[in-house]
From TrEMBL:
<dbReference type="InterPro" id="IPR036390">
    <property type="entry name" value="WH_DNA-bd_sf"/>
</dbReference>
<dbReference type="InterPro" id="IPR000524">
    <property type="entry name" value="Tscrpt_reg_HTH_GntR"/>
</dbReference>
<dbReference type="InterPro" id="IPR036388">
    <property type="entry name" value="WH-like_DNA-bd_sf"/>
</dbReference>
<keyword id="KW-0805">Transcription regulation</keyword>
<keyword id="KW-0804">Transcription</keyword>
<dbReference type="InterPro" id="IPR008920">
    <property type="entry name" value="TF_FadR/GntR_C"/>
</dbReference>
<dbReference type="InterPro" id="IPR011711">
    <property type="entry name" value="GntR_C"/>
</dbReference>
<protein>
    <submittedName>
        <fullName>FCD domain protein</fullName>
    </submittedName>
</protein>
<dbReference type="GO" id="GO:0003700">
    <property type="term" value="F:DNA-binding transcription factor activity"/>
</dbReference>
<dbReference type="Pfam" id="PF07729">
    <property type="entry name" value="FCD"/>
</dbReference>
<dbReference type="Pfam" id="PF00392">
    <property type="entry name" value="GntR"/>
</dbReference>
<keyword id="KW-0238">DNA-binding</keyword>
<feature type="domain" description="HTH gntR-type">
    <location>
        <begin position="3"/>
        <end position="71"/>
    </location>
</feature>
<dbReference type="GO" id="GO:0003677">
    <property type="term" value="F:DNA binding"/>
</dbReference>
Amino acid sequence: MARPLVEQAAERLLHLILEREYPIGAKLPNEYELAQDLDVGRSTVREAVRSLAARNILEVRQGSGTYISSKKGVAEDPFGFAFVKDRVKLTTDLFELRYLLEPRIAERAAQFASDEDIKRLEEVVYAIEEALEANDPIHLELDVKFHSMIADMSGNIAVSSLIPVINQSIQIINEDYTNRQMKKTSIEAHRNILKAIQSRHPIAAYDGMMSHILTVRQSVLNDWFDKKIDIQGLPSSKK
């Protein structure tokens, strides 16, 4: 059975994007040009664009045009973690996954990162410190970016998509992901990891990342203990 025309057009449009190597944030040709490129009507192009936008591949900006999304086709919660009732168990498991993956990723980053990559990472580290000192909640977003950049620098395509999802999920399911005790340790940890990557020292990068993840996990566990969080991830007083 032949697939619907819109589905075929969406697939061809995605192939066109990859073939032309449009970078994140690039603006696509207008609807008329895309219709010619794909050999379909403009209404079909419109539906194909909507389909890719729903998959976080494209971003439609009213009055401006269609752009390559920075989300790289990754859904906000692709694994459905928001529907897992046991927040404590899920968060603990996600930290365990980070513990298994991220030290090795940092080790590879120290081996394969370019000078330009390291410069950008340094800028993010400074931005995180400024946000933490100002108590600006954007530091959470920047922290995800820090770990995502290291994943990209590792050269492993799979982990560069997986790590942001894991880190964002931990923050989505835990509104109090960070606390005041974490401020100083986070700054020091990021500096140590950055220094190891700058020095091209894989073992130091591995150890620095492992120490960072364990410290953050312990801080979250201590926070739960102080708030008397029960096994369902809800304050006991609300049960």
